[in-house]
Amino acid sequence: MKPVEKSESSSNWFPDSSLSQLKNKSKSFSMGSMKNTNFKKIAISNNLTDLREEKVKIVNITQRPSKFPYSKAKMVISKQNIMTKLFYNAMQDIGNMNLQIRNSLHEILEEIRKLKTPKKIQAIFMRTDYLLEKTTGEMKQVETNVIACCFIFLGPLLNKTHSLFYEKVLISDSNKKFINFVVTIFEAQDKNYLKNKNIGLMIDNETSIHCANFHDKIEFIKGIKEKRIDVFHVKVSDLQQNIKIKLKNGETKNILNFIENKSNWREWNDCEIFFMDRKVSFVYYRWFYNAEHFDNESIIYRTLFEISDCVNLPSVELQIIGMKYFQILFKDKNILKKYLNIDEIEAIYSNFGDFKKLENFNFDDQFDYILKSDLEGGGHNIYGEDMLEIVKRKDEKYFLMKNILSPSFNNKFIDDKEERQVVCEIGIMGCLISSNGEIIDQQDCGYICRSKDVCSKECGVSCGYGALDSIYEFDE
C-alpha cells in the first residue's frame, strides 16, 4: 500500500478526491421535479443535502419550525451540565463497577480500557435526547449519544435557513461551541500546537462525498481550519503507511512494531502518534459505535490511539458509560449519589425514563413499553407483539422502556404537499474537558430538533425515519 497523499485542492485530506467529486456533482445538479421555491434553493445553497446516492437530494427537513414549547427545551438545556458531570464522574469510577453488560462491543472496549493508564486530558461531547410527555408535561430522556453525534453543523444551518422565513427561530450554536471545544482540547494537549502544526484525525468508514452526513463532516473540517488546525478525514485502511509512533524514551516505531509487541502494549502508554510526520493531538470517531464496525485491524488502531497521549472522542470509558445499559443503572438513586449531590439528582431525576429488565416482562407490557437494544444507529427498537419472540428467547441485549406519549404539532416535511402531525425529539448537547483531574471547560452546546410523523416509531434523520427541524424561541 502506498502512502496516501494530500489533495492539492484542499488543505484537508480526502483520499479519493472528494472535493472534485463534489464540484462535478454540483454542476450536474438539477431541481428535477421539486418545486423551485426559495426555501429549497436556500437549503441547497446551505449544503442541506444528502449525497449518498447519485442523485443529490435535500436532507429530510421540515418546511418551517415546529411550535414546540421553548420553555421545555430551555429547562433541559439548563440541566445539561449536570448530565456531563454525571458521565465524567462515572468515567473515573468505571474500573470499580461490576457491570453486567453482555455484548461484544463492551467486551472490545473493556479490553482496550484495561490497557490504559490515566490520561492527562479527558473530554466529553454528548447529546441527551428528550421527548415531551403529554400527560405530565415533563421532558423525558429517550437516550444519550456520545459517539458520532450528527447535525452539530447542519442543525444551525437549518435554523438559519428557517429564520429567513420565520421570526424568533431558536438558532443553535452547536457548531461554534464544538469548534471551540476542539480548540480547547488542542490547547490543553500542547500549548505549542500551532507552532508544532499538530493535527486531528476524523476516523470514518467512508470518506468520499457519498459518506453519511458528508456536509456535517466537511463543515467541521472547514470550521476548524479557520482556527489554523488541520483535521484529516480518514479510514483505518489509510493509516498503516502514514503512522509513526514515538515512545516516551524517544524511540521511533511503526504499527508493525506495535503489533509484534502486543504482550507489552501497556508499556506504550502516553506514546506520541504522528500522521504524515505531524503529531496527532485529537482523534474523532465517526464510526465504531457498534461491534460489527470493528475488525482486528480496527481494534489495533483504536487501542494504539487510546493508550497514546491523543485525546480520543469518545474515549473507550466515555463510550462504555454512553451505552444504553446505563439508562437503567442511573435510575438507581443510590448509584447517582456516588456521582452527584442531592440537588443535582433532584434536578434531573424526573427527566429519566421508566425501565424494566427483560426478565420482568409481563404480557400487557407490549402495549405500554418498547424493547430497546444496546445497538446504536437507529431502527433497533421492537414494538407490540413483535416483542414476544425476543422475550421468549431471552435476548439479553434488550430491555424494556416505557412508552413516552408526546403531543404532536402541525408541519410539513420538505417534499410534503399536505400538513402532517409530527412529534419533536429535542437533543441537547454539552461538553466537558478536564486536565489532570481539574475541569477546565464545561458548558451546554446548543440543540438539535428531529421530528417524526406521529405514526412513525423511529426518529433518525440519517436512517430516513424523521426530519431535521427547528423550534421557536418563544412559547405561544
From TrEMBL:
Its EC number is 6.3.2.3. InterPro entries: Glutathione_synthase (IPR005615), Glutathione_synthase_a-hlx (IPR014042), Glutathione_synthase_C_euk (IPR014709), Glutathione_synthase_N_euk (IPR014049), GSH-S_sub-bd_sf (IPR037013), GSH_synth_subst-bd (IPR004887), PreATP-grasp_dom_sf (IPR016185). GO terms for molecular function: ATP binding; glutathione binding; glutathione synthase activity; magnesium ion binding. Coiled coil: none annotated. Keywords: ATP-binding, Glutathione biosynthesis, Ligase, Magnesium, Metal-binding, Nucleotide-binding. Its cofactor is Mg(2+). ATP binds at residues 324, 372-381, 383, 401-404, 425, 452, 458. One of its GO terms (cellular component) is cytosol. SUPFAM superfamilies: Glutathione synthetase ATP-binding domain-like (SSF56059), PreATP-grasp domain (SSF52440). Binds 1 Mg(2+) ion per subunit. Mg(2+) binds at residue 376. It catalyses: gamma-L-glutamyl-L-cysteine + glycine + ATP = glutathione + ADP + phosphate + H(+). It is an enzyme of class 6 (ligase). Substrate binds at residue 450. Residues 213-320 form the Glutathione synthase substrate-binding domain. It comes from the Eukaryota. Pathway: Sulfur metabolism; glutathione biosynthesis; glutathione from L-cysteine and L-glutamate: step 2/2. Belongs to the eukaryotic GSH synthase family. This is Glutathione synthetase.
